[in-house]
Amino acid sequence: MNENGNRYALAALRERRAALDGEIKECDRKLRYLREAIGHIDATLSLFDPNGDPKEITAKRPYKRVKLFASGKLGRLVLDALRRGARPMTTREIVASIVEKVGYGPDAAKGMSHRVRANLLYQSKVVGRVVKEGERETARWSLA
After folding, report:
1. Which tens digits make up the pLDDT trace of 46-71?
2. How is the chain split into domains, by residue range?
3. Does domain 73-143 have CATH number 1.10.10.650?
């Protein structure tokens, strides 16, 4: 490799390292803040329940919502895909139909399949608009 190539590569690597180091420092700062906050809450809990052990309280996994769709839009897209399909469809077929309609591209299908499956289950068990036939990969969905 020539000198100029090394210079550009080194500059890019230094820039990336600086960015990562900054992220680590920010995470450390946030971690200190969170540990401090939990210490205050533990102290307050011990005021109300001196015999309680705050460490026995199990941690909750944080819910991180990804806004791919506006409220209710995914459900409408799922029902629309089933209407257009006019036959029982697999989850994969429904995802492909939604990706094609919305125009996200084929890479989006991987990230959407879990959400579409969850929406189909909700539509079938809670709302009653969708019917499931079969199990796992052989499951086919149709309108109720």
Report:
1. 999 999 999 999 999 887 766 677 77
2. 3-56, 73-143
3. no
